[in-house]
Amino acid sequence: MSIISPSRTALRHQFLRNNDYQPEQLEFLANDMSLRQYFRLPQSQRILMDAPSPENPAQFIAIAHHLKELGLRTPGILGHHIEEGFVLLEDFGDQTFSKILEDSPQREASLYKEAVRVLKYLHQNGLEKPAFIADYCLEKLLTEVQVFMDWYWPAVETQTTYEIAKQDFLGAWRTVFSNLPDLPHRLVLRDYHVDNLMWLPAANAPLQQCGLLDFQDAVWGPVVYDFISLVEDARRDVSLNLQKSLWEIFLEEVPSAQQSDYRTAAAILGAGRHVKVIGVFTRYALRQGKPKYLCHLPRLWNYLKDSLQKPSLKPVHDWFEAYLPLHNQGIPSV
After folding, report:
1. Closest of 77, 119, 78, 92 to residue 218, by C-alpha
2. Phi, psi (rounded to 5 degrees) for 101
3. Phi/psi at 58 (nearest 5 deg)?
4. Is 250 exposed, middle or buried (0-12, 13-18, 19+ CB in 10 A)?
5. Are 285 and 151 contacting, i.e. CB atoms less than 8 angstroms apart?
6. Is residue 1 part of a domain?
7. Which of 245, 220, 264, 235 is closest to 122 using CA atoms?
8. Domain edge (last residue) among 90, 121, 154
9. How far apart are CA 234 and CA 286, in angstroms?
10. pLDDT, tens digit, for every residue of 218-244?
């Protein structure tokens, strides 16, 4: 349910009137794990993004324009008030890849392959780093995995001193991240998975049939990050056979001598993402009172167990063995 303050509602309605839309038509659509909320104007085929401070709608707009200039499909920007945090967007409809997969599971392979082709196109064409995009630096990676210690650890562990465990945890990840293989860096959308991909069958060009959403937190980093977030999705299983096929497509232009580096980097970045998301889902359950996301934790733990078998992740594997044995982890009580 939308959490709406009276003052925010008044600002929203005034923005719509200023742009010749009727607030009475507004229908709440969704919110995400940030402060952003989305509303639909069904008669006008528009989406209203409501992104109050400290959200940064200007960054969303800049990245949307950049992706569009590269030839990818993002929602058209039809109006905005940056200071108040409102953006009017083209309405892509309701056909997310995830919804299609619920209704037509036989399309799974074709949709995932299309998603990989879009990623490859981005990597092959977006060669220059935009001035407004930050690097996916070591400190940013460490800040993300720290969410696990800030939220999951206190929910399950009361015996060990937090500060000691946290210091060792971040030290292990610092060692692992510092030894990432040197891969090409490109735009990393960071939440590239089937919930954020839209099927737009009316588009003319094949790549235009895949609409991109939720890219406002994009950074400049290793090319494998978005790929591993797609194939090791926190919310749904992707079969090993399909993963194998997708890896083959993703790596088909990569020299065979370099492919092991891609897989090693994917294991490291994937493990870091899974740890972060375990923390984020726990935070969402405890702080927002929405425990439904906790049902995904067993899947994330399984991904993490597999990743931590890799020699490149031994320092993190050893931390879990010492502090939180993987076979004992599950869903925290809420």
Report:
1. 119
2. -65, -30
3. -60, -35
4. buried
5. no
6. no
7. 220
8. 90
9. 18
10. 999 999 999 999 999 999 999 999 999
Let me know whether 216 and 135 are in one domain: yes
- Enumerate the H helices of 217-326 as residue ranges: 224-231, 240-250, 256-287, 297-307, 314-323
Strand 86-90 to strand 46-50: parallel, antiparallel, or no bridges (unpaired)? antiparallel
pLDDT tens by residue, 303-328? 999 999 999 999 999 999 999 998 88
Asked if residue 264 and residue 181 are part of one domain, the reply reads: yes
pLDDT tens digit sequence for 250-281? 999 999 999 999 999 999 999 999 999 999 99
- The CATH code of the domain that includes 207 is 3.90.1200.10
Same domain, 210 and 260: yes
Q: Are residues 82 and 57 in the same domain?
A: yes
Q: Give the range of the structural domain holding residue 79, as residue numbers without chain letter.
A: 6-90
- The upper half-sphere exposure of residue 149, i.e. CA atoms within 13 Å in the direction of its Cβ, equals 23
Residues 55 and 195 in one domain: no
Based on the structure, what is the number of domains in the chain? Answer: 2
Q: Are 26 and 48 in contact (CB under 8 A)?
A: yes
Q: Taking the alpha carbons of 209, 215, 216, 219 in that order, is the dihedral positive or negative?
A: negative
> What is the number of other CB atoms lying within 10 angstroms of the CB of residue 212?
22
Q: Check: CB of residue 82 under 8 Å from CB of residue 13.
A: no
Do 147 and 170 lie in one domain? The reply is: yes
Please report, as a single letter, which amino acid is at residue 220: W
